Hints:
The chain has helices at 15-25, 27-35, 46-60, 68-74, 76-83, 95-105, 108-126, 196-207, 223-231, 244-258, 305-327, 343-356, 406-414, 432-439, 443-453, 467-498, 519-528, 551-559, 565-572; strands at residues 5-11, 132-142, 165-175, 180-187, 213-216, 235-239, 265-269, 272-288, 291-304, 363-377, 389-404, 418-423, 502-503, 513-514, 532-538, 541-546. By secondary structure, the protein is α+β, with helices and mostly antiparallel strands. α1 (15-25) packs across α3 (46-60), α2 packs antiparallel against α7 (108-126) and α6 packs across α16 (467-498). The longest helix is centred in the C-terminal third of the chain and has 32 residues, at 467-498.
Amino acid sequence: MNNELQLFHERVDDIPLLVGVMTKLGLSEVIDRTLGEHWLHEGISNGWLTILWVAYVLSEADHRKSSVQEWVERHGTTLSRLLEQPLRKDVEANDDRLGILLTHLSDDTKWEQLERSLWAATVAAYEIVETGVRLDSTTVSGYHTRHEDGLMQLGHSKDHRPDLAQVKLMAAAAEPTGQWIACDVVSGEQADDRLYTPLIQRVREIIGRCGVLYTGDCKMAALATRAELVHQGDYYVTSLPMTGGVGQQFDTWVDVAVAGDQVATLIWQEKTLLGAGYEFVRPMLSVINDQPVTWNERVQVFRSLTLAQSQATALEERLQRATADIGKLTPAPGRGKRQHTTEESLVTAFQQALSRHRVEGLLTITYQKEEESTVQWVGRGRGGPNRETKTVTRVRYVITDVQRNHQAIRAQQDRLGWRALVTNLSEEQMSLSQTVCHYRNAPIMENTFHLLKDRPLGISPLYVRNDDQIRGLTRLLTLALRILTLIQTQIRQSLQRTGEELNGLYDGQPNRTTNQPTTARLLKAVAHQEVTLTKVVVGQQVQWHLTPLPDLILKILHHLGLSPAIYTRLVDNSV
Length: 575
């Protein structure tokens, strides 16, 4: 009788936690109901395949199709027991099946229906409540060949890579959590201002009501966008762009405040002074479907102390660089040292330096004319006592000093940090201070974009080429982003309610605690616990063993509203 002991190990890590969150959300049912299946489809459904892929992306920080099947096989027992169905080897998550899933996700009609159903499921499962909607856009660059009418196009890059083709994402998130409601994937050359209204209309349909506050940056301030919101009974808060006629009006608005002709109100956020400003009301008129739309709009002109200090620092740096460059305009004579031989030439170079550093009128120079005379022989050859000579005079203009125009600099500093917001909310609905504080919550979208571009999602580069695959993979990663944001929101809200803090999340700092953990740090800490599923074979007897769950994992599961059974059933369900 062979009683040889055999052990087979399989790392579990954060996989049950991720699958548990998506199962509680009902993601599989939502996707299956939306995408459907081919009548010859075999194996796990598109919904469960999506959950597998999203779990792989978040657990392994990798979204390549080529690696998913190998990961599924490596964690085959864990995944099959979590899904409560067998997984076919070499087939279930291969490149072809993943490509078909991306093609389904690239369908605009199916995607819009999926987002509608997913938001309803999110609100029902996790009690997400939106007090308003924040909108913004970002770009995702890739080393793709640009094709006419293709999705990857050259455009204004928010990744500071104008040399690379890009795709643009326009997203809407619920405030204050930052949970995404909807997003549109469009070609990278499109301007932002035309993307707001279509997405707002979709969001209005998804949440099923009007009277919602929509907030966005200056690209949402197009008159047609504001008029559409008013026409539908919604509200807006946005900043005005300093272009066209608005730029000229803005100068007048700031002038009356700087001159003291308009009393400014201090703006506070709790006990922190943000700045000061004033507001006025103006009538607005637009036309929608040949029908006039009129409303009163509050224009809020305010000065942010933080922005003013930042711009003042930038101004000082420009003045210093300009002063250094101006000092180099008249070097000492020497080989290769260009000299200004006319006053006009020196003044032109000085003005160009001011313009280059954007400090026109803020610096002045003092210069003088220098002449040097030398006697030279006329003609070629050696000189002699009877050789004719001539006197040559060289002229150059030299800068002797660079002075600051302190009065002009002070006047410009007084105009730093000013912005203009517009809203159709009444003063009773949101005061000047409340509006400014609300608009300052812009990091809601910036933080989610950072999550999308950083580990574990790392959307760029996209390892697919065809447009349907690019659109589908981008949308899949936005689903993963929603799971990341959802976990983070639930953990933080639960910790805040209970007054608890988590420790053990920071490498090398076991006693450091936090009540504001990020999902990436949580998942990394869970993986470091090295929870392992072990198959023990002794002769004909087979037993399963799971590493006892550490307190950290139990606490995380508790705050997410998940039972430890999502881990322990990996053993209980053994056969």
